[in-house]
Amino acid sequence: MADIIKIGAYLCKGCGLGERLNIGALENAAKRAGKASVVRSHGFLCNQEGVELIKADIEKEGVTRVVIAACSRRAKTEAFRFDEVAVSRANLREGVIWIRPDTKEAKETTQEMAEDYVRMACAEVRRMTLPTANPKAALNRRILVVGGGISGMTAALEASQAGYGVTIVEKTDRLGGWAGRLYKRVADRYPFADPADTGVADMVKAIQSDAKITVHLNALVSRTSGAPGRFEVEITSGGAATNETFGSIIQASGFTRYDLANLPEMGGGTLKDVVDQAGLEELALAAAGGPIKRPSDGREVRSVIFVQCAGQRSEKPGHLPYCSGFCCTTSIKQAMYFKDRNPEIDTVVLFSDLRTPGAGGEDFYRNGQRKGVTFAKGSVRAVVQGEAGPVVQFQDEILNDSVSMPVDLVVLATGQVANAGVNIENAPESAESVQKVSILNLTYRQGPDVPQLKHGFSDSHFICFPYETRRTGIYTAGPVRRPMDIAQAMEDATGATLKAIQTLENAGLGRAAHPRVGDLSFPTFRREGCTQCKRCTVECPFGAIDEDEQRYPQFNEARCRRCGTCMGACPVRVISFENYSVETVGQQVKSLEIPDEFSGKPRVLIFACENDAYPALDMAAQNRLEYSAYVRVIPVRCLGSVNTIWLNDALNNGYDGVMLMGCQKGENYQCHFVKGSEMAYYRMSKIGDTLKGMNLDTERVTTYEVAITDIHRIPKLINDYIAMIEKIGPSPFKGF
Amino acid sequence: MTAVIATNQTILVVGGGISGITAALEAAECGKQVVLIEKNPSLGGRVSQLYKYFPKLCFPTCGLEINLRRIKANRNIHLLTQAEVEQVSGVPGDLSVTIRLRPRYVTEACTACGDCAKAVIAEFDDEFNYGRKRRKGAYLPFNLAYPQRYVMDARMIGTDDAKAAQAACKANAIDLDMQEEVITLKVGAVIWATGWKPYDAAKIQPYGYDRFQNVITSVEFERMLDPFGPTNGQIRRPSDGAVPKNVAFIQCAGSRDRNHLQHCSRVCCMATLKQTTYVREQLGDAARSSVYYIDIRAIDRIDDFHRRVKEDANVTFIKSKVASITKDGATGDVFLHGNDLEKPGVGSDMRYKNRHDLVVLAVGMEPSVSAAWLPTNPHGFLEGNPSTGIFGAGVSSEALDVNRAVQNATAAALRAIQVVNRVAGVEG
């Protein structure tokens, strides 16, 4: 059935379309230019009767391709969902009548616009086929967790609770990580009053007695290949390697404590009675509930000062530029170790901003105050050795006083340094990137580890989609992602586990992962046409494409996010998706009737990112903002999927200009496919020579960064562009 | 009657803000059946009323659009709007939920053409703009509202205006006889994502929100920046529409305060830092921002945003809990009174009386967890307890920023899935 092309074109007369447009002429356009076999119009196509009409044609008339010429593809999605046929939408409402004035003068150009959209939709749907899902789909319900600290243990237990098997690979000889080396943890339940048991021992016990969880201690991941649903992982332990397969991976590789020796001015690494927070936990564990003793002479600590932000929130070389988020409450907890045992002990927390967020944080802070912990805003100049112990010299910023305070013990609240593995993008080595050993040893074309974002953390850039790293099916969790405390790491690991489960289930069904979840299309390439130029493998934002032994691209469909950046990259146009290809767009470009140079009707093609630019255009229409009738808009999955052949075709066919509208690129990129819009810019930066070669003005192809909120700006951009085109005159290629 | 098919393997998500949307989608994209209910006529919640997100300064509608696309593409989600839970009973894996559905008076036949809004005359305060703008009695709550269907204000019912709207609707989508319904669903687990409301600024008496026009809240300030908001995107002071030159931001307005919300709302510091960039972006060197704060809580890796704002010579930070605000005669300006803790000297030396022409109160987040039968801690946040089968997500469980709320909601989706998988006997 898939091979039979029978197009049914359905024109809606509702929402004013019937009054504003010549529906008969649109029907003719669908019949003649669009070669639709069945053409029908209806008063309200989206109502039950209209939808039934289409369904009946699919069932009884054998219609295999459907064109809905009505509202935007973003509207009435429930009504116009026909799973068994390919569907294309001609946007006559938001795309035409709502953005054009209802005047006699505008009628002709408005009608031309509508007819073109009908032709384009017919041309598109003719080349679309129904996606059939990744044939290499594999279901594997086992999850690899790298790291056996609090994040990794949480992930394992949560996955097991949901019915999934887990293998933990832990590099040390025990589970627990840093949390296992704490005396107590910060309270996580109301009334948030006292340090609490870490819970680590219970978790270790639960893991050991869980038949669904396997633990490899003293082990490393020495090789990872494959894709979601079929990750092949080599685990090395004591020189012996074992191989296992997994559906997805959670990287909970945690953090390394910041090296105190970087802070000699604060006595770090030079004074025995200056420790970091981990050092204080060691002292508290050694004390086992008794008095905490200082390292130099074993004397009971009677006064202690906690220095917040030590080597953090600072641009100085060797310091961490970020805040580690957990240290304020940790210092309060550690001060409570002293106060709970003996209220007479002096405990001072020296801070610049005390950061105890939320209900729990603020209650815990208040409980610290209630227990007599002193909080002072100040900045430390130096910690020196005095007669009886360390002396902290600081500026009290409330009392505006220079203070020298002798104490028994100094605790420096230093930060977390992510164990994110190798920085595959070779950003300049920052002070915090101490870890150079790969965590995952991925065999991917694009490097052995998950890309890092900032300061050596592997976090996602997206506020709305925090788990979306650029390696599909691999989720990072815990302090490897961003600095965090135990409570947050446990939440984070639980969320990452959901994503790991989701990916492997979708991979099992041959479906895409975020943001096109459920998309069954996947990229294929025509091997005989491929020149092995490698652009697709290099430009894929997700590292989905490797190279095979013969240096041809090897698509790992389950890693692919279906953005089409590879399709846009391919100079010989051999990459396509069933329902989105060089042809589905290219034929739309070619389907238009281009008025001649004497008509005074220029034609400008717009490629608009379907996530931001296209909705903005729709919303401009909702607000009845007008823009020129000379543009024709084609939504694209991502600007990165725009192949320059479309531009060539457009210009050769006599279009007067092409506008590309994509998302913000660069540091604060908003492209949902990370690098798509950036790649488009890069490619377009090179198109100038082609244009000059064709003797065309470079302005004839212009790229814009637009946002979904540019509802007023985009119509203006369009109108300004048309004015510019009218000024420079029609394309010399018209009529050829 | 509203027909919803739900079983003890269905997950009910209560609240259609960013947390609820996330929880619903993440569960549905694992293949689970989800019923998502929202009290308002459209999805989006508080984030849809924000101009930008920190720290990227990107637009919330961008992520909302992606999420709406995911919802439109997913058959596992059944959405009910203008719906509120009355009661939940039973045990995890076998819960019975009573839901009250308020009538929209507009059916699914609506095409969002807008003819009804054109036909009606009556206007009401626009909730989406915190009452600082008017909207029609038949309306689409905002540009990106989903479901993309108009709403008839219940106060219109029985008026000729409502009949005019009905007559104008060519799609026959207006049903003025629509009635309230109460339905009962059987579900396996519930994710409670009812979010928050801005703390009532009028309760902070010394700040005079109810007395001084030029004292506004941070959420109202966000609306001011929206080109479709009350001032068409222009920063203006309410008293006379003038462009402010000297804006004060007061942190912890109603937070970290024994008389109001005891908790720290976590987001307000970053939100204020973000809002100083609005002032900078729109008014340039013509306006100054002053931030009155206790601690600047720009936590973890987003602290660099704080540093960047501090580099702006037009932004001043004053470590002080503002004591009171008084009015300066007829100018519309106000004076902020308090002690600047970092000012040299002691006692009265630290006092200030600073003139400002616009004051933005960084109001706290008050959890919207009102049902008495829900287990909450004394701060009003939901206390997670697996034995109830009800899992908190987002700000109903703790004061969180968007990023953390989404993480938290994703985790909540797994907790709910654990319950329904146990019911279904799924084994990995």
Explain what this protein looks like in three dimensions:
The complex is a heterodimer of chains A (736) and B (428). Chain A is α/β, with parallel strands linked by helices and 736 residues long. Among the domains of chain A are: 1-130, Rossmann fold (3-Layer(aba) Sandwich); 142-256 and 418-508, FAD/NAD(P)-binding domain, CATH 3.50.50; 259-414, FAD/NAD(P)-binding domain. Helices cover 29% and strands 20% of the residues of chain A. Chain A has 19 helices and 29 strands. In chain A, the strands form 8 sheets. Chain A has a 7-stranded mixed β-sheet. In chain A, helix 6 packs across helix 7 (200-208). Chain A is elongated, with a radius of gyration of 31 Å. The model of chain A is unreliable at 431-435 (pLDDT under 50). Chain B is an alpha/beta fold and 428 residues long. Chain B has 3 domains: 10-102 and 180-195 and 368-424, FAD/NAD(P)-binding domain (3-Layer(bba) Sandwich); 115-168, no CATH class; 200-363, FAD/NAD(P)-binding domain (3-Layer(bba) Sandwich). Chain B contains 8 helices and 22 strands. Chain B has helices at 18-28, 60-73, 115-119, 160-168, 218-225, 268-283, 303-310, 402-424, and strands at residues 10-14, 33-37, 77-80, 83-91, 94-101, 123-125, 134-136, 138-139, 151-152, 181-187, 189-192, 196-198, 215-217, 246-253, 288-293, 315-319, 324-327, 334-339, 351-356, 358-363, 365-367, 390-392. In chain B, the strands form 7 sheets. Chain B has a 5-stranded parallel β-sheet, with helices on one face. In chain B, strands 13-20-14-15-16 form a 5-stranded parallel β-sheet. In chain B, helix 1 runs parallel beside helix 2 (60-73), helix 1 (18-28) runs parallel beside helix 8 and helix 5 (218-225) packs parallel to helix 6 (268-283). The longest helix of chain B has 23 residues, at 402-424. Chain B is globular, with a radius of gyration of 23 Å. Chain B starts with 9 loop residues before the first strand and ends with a helix. The mean pLDDT of chain B is 96. The chains are: A alpha/beta (736), B alpha/beta (428). The interface between A and B is large, with 94 and 84 residues.
